[in-house]
């Protein structure tokens, strides 16, 4: 038999026919009309080259070939149902590895707390954090990543997104800065030299856009690709760095740095989570999304 010519839905009808041995009872069981079941039986007879059910007196009985088919057909249907049915996700026993694309910012600010929440609920779960790159959409689509967590602009091309929190900018200087104490004026801000954290090099960001609206510019003396060196550099120089508040406050106390409000309005940014629509309904991915959303808010 060429299986490509067989409608596999007929196997459900075949199983019911071999069990009930009655077209009318199968019609009621499957909520279909008797003519539809009779037509299905005719197709099965043609496919299998066997009458399957034959009349004996007032009853229908199965042929020897049909009886030999019954148990294998039931096993096949159970296997198909088992294969297509997703088992419920139990975080307390799972050893699942979640792969999440992040930026330096989200790894540093969100995941210390999130890892505690995850391991409280799912001690066997593992998390792999991957750099967010230009292939994130394809990697989500192909199942190589479960989530992406970053600023909303970086995730703007992804259809499924959820806002996690709002971030604002602050300035960071060393506590013993000779010219800056407990507040910053615009003129003092512009008179100082600055450090900029940017993985894309010296490009204009929210701070430069805000200054441009005022018709001003700043003197960026140092551009860094990562946040890691910021505390050491600011603590040992007179440079001013303007960055996300959650990062600045984590740096400030241990490195003897001072957090100050910028002397002009700087637009902050949304932090979001993105995923591929095909994972919706996957209990494991639904769970990790809920944990991230709750922990980041």
Protein traits:
297 residues, alpha/beta, Arc Repressor Mutant, subunit A, D-Maltodextrin-Binding Protein, domain 2, 3 domains, five-stranded mixed sheet, 12 helices, 41% helix
Describe the structure.
- It is rod-shaped, with a radius of gyration of 32 Å.
- Helix 9 links the parallel strand 8 (193-197) and strand 9.
- The strands form 3 sheets. It has a 5-stranded mixed sheet with strand order 4-3-5-12-6. A 5-stranded mixed sheet has the order 9-8-10-7-11.
- It is an alpha/beta fold.
- It contains 12 helices and 12 strands.
- Helix 1 packs across helix 2 (23-30) and helix 2 (23-30) packs across helix 3.
- Helix content is 41%, strand content 22%.
- The longest helix is centred in the N-terminal third of the chain and has 21 residues, at 64-84.
- The two termini are 58 Å apart.
Question: Number of DSSP strands?
Answer: 12
Oligomer: single chain
Mind telling me the CATH superfamily name of the largest domain? Answer: Periplasmic binding protein-like II
Strand order of the largest sheet: 4-3-5-12-6
**Rounded mean pLDDT score:** 92
What count of helical segments does DSSP give?
12
Characterize the largest beta sheet: strand count, sense, and whether it forms a barrel.
5 strands, mixed
Radius of gyration: 32 Å
Q: What is the CATH class of the largest domain?
A: Alpha Beta
CATH architecture of the largest domain: 3-Layer(aba) Sandwich
Uncertain segments: none
How many domains make up the coordinates?
3
How many angstroms does the end-to-end distance come to?
58 Å
């Amino acid at each position: 038999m060429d299986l490509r010519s067989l409608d596999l839905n007929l196997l459900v009808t075949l199983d019911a026919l071999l069990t009930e041995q009655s077209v009318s009872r199968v019609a009621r069981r499957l909520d279909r009309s008797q003519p539809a079941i009779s037509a299905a039986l005719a197709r099965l007879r043609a496919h299998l080259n066997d009458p399957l059910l034959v009349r004996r007196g007032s009853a229908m009985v199965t042929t020897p070939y049909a009886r030999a088919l019954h148990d294998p057909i039931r096993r096949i249907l159970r296997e198909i149902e088992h294969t297509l049915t997703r088992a419920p996700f139990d975080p307390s026993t799972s050893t699942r590895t979640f792969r999440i694309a992040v930026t330096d910012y989200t790894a540093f600010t969100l995941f210390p707390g999130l890892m505690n929440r995850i391991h409280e609920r799912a001690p066997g779960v593992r998390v792999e954090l991957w750099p967010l790159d230009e292939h994130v959409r394809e990697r989500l689509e192909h199942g190589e990543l479960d989530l992406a967590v970053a600023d909303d602009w970086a995730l703007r091309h992804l259809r499924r997104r959820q806002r996690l929190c709002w971030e604002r900018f602050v300035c960071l200087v060393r506590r013993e800065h000779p010219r800056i104490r407990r507040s910053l004026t615009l003129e003092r801000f512009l008179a100082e030299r600055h450090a900029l954290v940017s993985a894309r090099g010296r490009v204009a960001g929210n701070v430069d856009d805000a200054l441009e609206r005022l018709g001003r510019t700043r003197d960026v003396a140092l551009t860094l690709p990562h946040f890691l060196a910021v505390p050491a550099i600011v603590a040992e120089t007179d440079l001013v760095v303007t960055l996300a508040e959650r990062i600045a406050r984590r740096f400030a106390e241990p490195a003897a740095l001072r957090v100050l409000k910028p002397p002009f309005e700087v637009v902050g940014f949304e932090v979001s989570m993105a995923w591929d629509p095909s994972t919706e309904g996957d209990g494991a991915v639904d769970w990790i999304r809920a944990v991230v959303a709750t922990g980041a808010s």
